[in-house]
Every structure is written in structure tokens, then in C-alpha cells.
Specification:
Elements lengths: L27 E5 H18 L2 E4 L7 H4 L9 E3 L2 H9 L4 E7 L5 H9 L3 E6 L2 H14 L5 E5 L13 H12 L3 E6 L10 H24 L6 E4 L2 H4 L10 E4 L7 H6 L9 E11 L4 E4 L3 H4 L15 E5 L4 E10 L4 E5 L13 E5 L3 H5 L4 E5 L19 E6 L5
Parallel strand pairs: 1-16, 2-9, 3-4, 4-5, 5-6, 6-7, 7-8, 8-9
Antiparallel strand pairs: 1-10, 10-11, 10-15, 11-14, 12-13, 12-15, 13-14, 16-17
Helix pairs in contact: 5-6
């Protein structure tokens, strides 16, 4: 049966790149390009030391511009949607891993990309998926590279390295010349609160992937790719022997969850949302803004951490944190700011613009069509922010990919 490709998402109009953060209607998303570039450089340096290939996962920013904030040619990427795969292919990327288990109904879109010369690597963890991929490859006369997802910590999908299904799946793929390797993701590392825990997670992730590769090779099957990665483990790994590539996505922006884990500092966060003060309720100890969960998302990822950051920490428009001020409640278009421990509210007149740092960069970014980009300011060698004007100038607008 022929499955028509769904219509491409209509991109939002790109705003004029003029003025400062004091100009666009709020709420809107902001990216500090200097911080993003510093975050990218930090992991790139680490990956070079580890001797593996870095495959950035673009699911966080979903933006061609944000994928290489410091510039550079298109390189290998991982994506979470076929809309991302198609957009990044249009942008010149020719090595794409679709890192979500394949729905066989989506194979026509994958085949269309393969015929364009884009290497789209699929992910699967069942014999049924493997047979669908193998059948499509034979029927269409196109090699469809597929990786077997390995479960390293019980977080989500995948087969365990010692599961006989691993080699059975590998055999189905290999017989159709589709076996491309193994891939794992240490999802539980997002709950690793100490450096020792994160190192153990990184080692467990590596060991599971390498063990799966070893089992497949023992069965006479080729394993060209051994892929691991998450933002916490990518910044913790010290030895990736047996691994060929490392994936991470959140690291470009970072967020309060990553800061709470100790993977980064609050000063490293490159994404924020500009909101405006629209009301005061001093009798309740509240300041009201026009940025609710439609601007920030409902993600409350820090609630499970030692320090709950509500819906986000609050900074002035120049990026300086307002001491003790947190977005503690949100309805659809209203964000409620309160202080910790009942401290007096700061003087923030009606119309004051603020920047809110998000719990989960992926979820907050998804609420916006794109990013107003500021250049930030020079920092020291540790990446600490420098001085910013009261209303930083907007230097660019980076559209996001939407849809699936």
C-alpha cells in the first residue's frame, strides 16, 4: 500500500532581525549564542580526547542554525522525528540517525531520503520491525541501514545484550544487508546526582553497547557502529573503548535539570524565555507575568531534585539572576513569580521584562517557533558571562523545525 508523505509543516514567518530584547512581543525564546558555542566547544573537546565521533542530537534545538552555533559544515546528526531528518537533509546533512524506534508505516519517507543520497540510519528492537525494514529494502532495491537498540538500564526501549533476540534481529537485518550496528541511551543518567553516579552510568552504557556488539560479532554478524550517549554520560565518560560514536543533544542549551545534576552551571544555560510583568498581587506574595506553561512547558523536572526550581529561575533582561525569584506556578498564559522562603518581592514595575531559565530545554524550546539570538558577552576562560547591556541586541533569528 502506498502511504503518501504528509504535507511539510508551514514554517512560521521569520521576524525581522532588528532591535533588542525590549522590542518583540512577549513571550519569546532567546538563545545566547556565545554560551551555546561554548557548550558545543566543551563537549567537542571532550569527544576528541575520548577518540570517538560526536553525533549531535538535534531534538533539543531542532534548528539548523543552532546545530552549529560556531559555524562549520554539515556533519552527522541524530534526530527524533522524520520532519527533522527531512529538514536537516534539505540543509545539507547526509548522515542522519533517526533515533526513535521505526514505525513501518514511515518507511516510504525514509526511502525517499535514501534515494536522495541521505544515509538515514534507523533504530529498532524487535524482529517485526527488522522484517519490515528487510522486506522494504529487498522490495525497493535500496539498502536501509538499521541499528539495534540495546537496553542498558531499563529506562525505555531496547533488548538486553544477553537476550537471544539480539542476534535473531541482527540476522534478519544482515541477510538484507541492513545491519548497521547497535545503539544505546542511558536514560537513567538523568537521575545520577553525583559525579560517581554519572561515571557509573557512562560505564554501564558503554559496557552494554560493547557487550551487544561482541555478541553479534560472535554470531558472525558485522557491527560497524557502536553508538552511546546522553548529555550526563557524555560529560562523565572517561573511557569509550569499543565505542565508535557518542550522541548528546541537551548540551547545546543545557537547562536547570542539568545544572541540578551538576553537569553544568546555571551560568552555562543558553536558552531563556522573555516575559513581561503584567500584574502584582502583593497580598499573596506574587508577581504575574504573561508567560505561562504555553511559554515554558509543563515540565517540572527539578521537582525530584534537591532544589526545586519551579517552572524556572528568573533573571533580568540582561541575564543577571534576580535573587530568590522563581516562577512557582503557571497557567496557560500566566506565570506566577514568588520568592523563596517568603522573602520580600523585588520592585518590578508593570511592563518590566524578565528572562526565565527553563527546567527542560527540549520542552521549553518546543513551545516556540524559533529563537531570537543574542551574542551574549565575552566571558572568562571558564565561560562565565561578562557584562551585558540592559537590553541585549538581537543579532539573528533561528527558526525551528516543527511537526513529525
Amino acid at each position: 500500500m502506498h502511504h503518501a508523505r504528509p504535507p511539510a509543516p508551514v514554517p512560521a514567518a521569520v521576524p525581522a532581525v532588528t532591535g533588542t530584547l525590549a522590542d518583540p512581543d512577549t513571550p519569546f525564546a532567546v538563545v545566547d549564542a556565545r554560551r551555546a558555542a561554548a557548550n558545543v566547544d566543551r563537549l567537542a573537546h571532550r569527544v576528541r580526547r575520548l577518540g570517538v565521533t560526536l553525533r549531535p542530537h538535534v531534538k533539543t534545538a531542532k534548528s539548523l542554525d543552532a546545530a552549529a552555533p560556531g559555524g562549520g559544515p554539515p556533519g552527522p546528526v541524530a534526530v527524533s522525528t522524520l520532519a527533522e531528518a527531512e529538514a536537516f537533509a534539505d540543509g545539507g546533512h547526509r548522515d542522519v540517525t533517526y533515533a526513535v524506534g521505526i514505525d513501518p508505516r514511515k518507511l516510504p519517507r525514509v526511502l525517499a531520503l535514501l534515494r536522495r543520497g541521505v544515509c538515514v540510519r534507523l533504530l529498532l528492537d524487535s524482529p517485526e520491525q527488522a522484517r519490515a525494514v528487510a522486506d522494504a529494502a529487498r522490495r525497493e532495491g535500496v539498502r536501509v541501514p538499521a541499528q539495534i537498540e540495546v537496553d542498558c538500564d531499563g529506562h525505555r526501549g531496547g533488548v538486553r545484550p544477553d537476550d537471544p533476540a539480539l542476534t535473531a534481529i541482527g540476522r534478519v537485518l544482515h541477510d538484507a544487508d541492513c545491519l548497521d550496528g547497535v545503539l544505546t541511551h542511558a536514560g537513567e543518567s538523568y537521575f545520577a546526582y553525583t559525579p560517581e553516579d554519572r561515571l557509573r552510568a557512562a560505564e554501564g552504557e558503554r559496557d552494554a553497547a560493547v557487550a551487544a556488539a561482541r555478541a553479534l560479532r560472535a554470531a558472525g554478524l558485522p557491527v560497524p557502529t557502536v553508538s552511546v550517549g546522553s548529555t550526563p554520560t557524555a560529560h562523565a565518560a572517561e573511557d569509550l573503548t569499543g565505542v565508535t560514536e557518542l550522541r548528546a543533544g541537551n548540551y547545546v542549551f543545557f537547562d536547570l535539570v542539568m545544572a541540578g545534576l551538576g553537569v553544568c552551571r546555571v551560568e552555562d544555560l543558553a536558552l531563556s524565555v522573555v516575559v513581561t510583568v503584567i500584574g502584582h498581587r502583593p497580598e499573596y506574595g506574587r508577581i504575574v507575568t504573561d508567560g505561562g506553561w504555553m511559554a515554558m512547558s509543563r515540565d517540572r523536572g527539578t521537582a525530584a531534585q534537591a532544589r526545586d526550581q519551579g517552572y524556572g529561575l528568573v533573571a533580568s533582561l540582561d541575564g543577571v539572576l534576580v535573587p530568590g525569584l522563581v516562577m512557582t506556578s503557571a497557567s496557560q498564559e500566566h506565570g506566577i513569580l514568588t520568592t523563596r522562603d517568603g522573602a520580600p518581592l523585588p520592585e518590578l514595575p508593570l511592563g518590566t521584562r524578565l528572562r526565565v531559565l527553563p527546567n527542560h530545554a527540549c520542552a521549553t524550546a518546543a513551545q516556540h517557533p524559533g529563537y531570537h539570538v543574542i551574542d551574549g558577552a565575552p566571558g572568562g576562560p571558564d565561560g562565565a558571562p561578562g557584562e551585558l547591556s540592559a537590553a541585549p541586541a538581537v543579532s539573528a533569528y533561528w527558526p525551528r523545525v516543527t511537526g513529525w
